[in-house]
Amino acid sequence: MLHRSIDRVTTIPPLGPGFDGERHKAALVVSPGNFNATDPFFLMADDHITLEGRFGEAHPHAGLETVTFMLNGTMEDTGGRLAEGDVEWMTAGSGIVHSEDAMVSTGMRLFQLWLVLPEGQRNMPPRVQILQRAAMPVHVEPGVEAIVYSGRLGDAAAATKNAVPVTLADIRMEPDASFAPELPAAYNAFTVVIDGEATAGAGGEPLSENMVGWTGPAGGASSMLALRAGAKGARILLYAGQPQNIEVVAQGPFIAGSREELAGYYAAFRQGRFPHAGTMRPVALA
């Protein structure tokens, strides 16, 4: 089995102004513009709110999936409520409008990931999945607890419906604990340290809070990524997904295969043809 190495390390930059006034600060965990290296992950934002209240405005998406991980606090809109540890997995597909009348709590922090859809499913019907932390499968071994929101780790397999095969897990490790999650070798993957310190990969790359370690796809069927917590333990989010190896163009909230397809999304939105997430029943997980 392939033992993965960490190919590159980035750090979440200092928070800057967000889109919703003084109380909103944000930074990019995954920056757009280098999709060949991050495929299928297009971007990921780290959003912080210092004061409760309305958050943003209703807006559209098309041609992608958004994966919103609630790290702290709560967010509630017409589509439902996310509490700490919950995830909304929204497939925009042919187009959707969401974040209607969104309200957030003081101290809210979330990660929002944009996933590129496969060419054949870019315009699939939209759907929304609410992944409640308490309902997610958990893989446990000595000193390790991994909540699995998508994909499989060990004996824990999530029922989340994926257009792109993706593993998403929240891994909590006690001091000096070791864990070697198995991943398909073809997946591109990154880890984000939320708390504590750890080493990752065959070379024992040191990672600390707000550092992002990337490990690229390789040959073979399976691989493992060695993780070892530091003296104070660690909390690590693991994202891994199947690269799509396609060319995409992006503008505003849309990702498409061509400028013509982008223009079609804008026209459909202006004509009111996108359904609203708040009117859609979240997909039930089997």
UniProtKB/TrEMBL annotation:
GO terms for molecular function: metal ion binding. Gene3D superfamilies: Jelly Rolls. CDD domains: cupin_pirin_C. Signal peptide: none annotated. It comes from the Bacteria. This is Nuclease PIN. InterPro entries: Pirin, Pirin_C_dom, Pirin_N_dom, RmlC-like_jellyroll, RmlC_Cupin_sf. Binds 1 Fe cation per subunit. It comes from Novosphingobium guangzhouense. Its cofactor is Fe cation. Residues 169-274 form the Pirin C-terminal domain. Fe cation binds at H59, H61, H98, E100. Keywords: Iron, Metal-binding. Belongs to the pirin family. Residues 47-115 form the Pirin N-terminal domain.
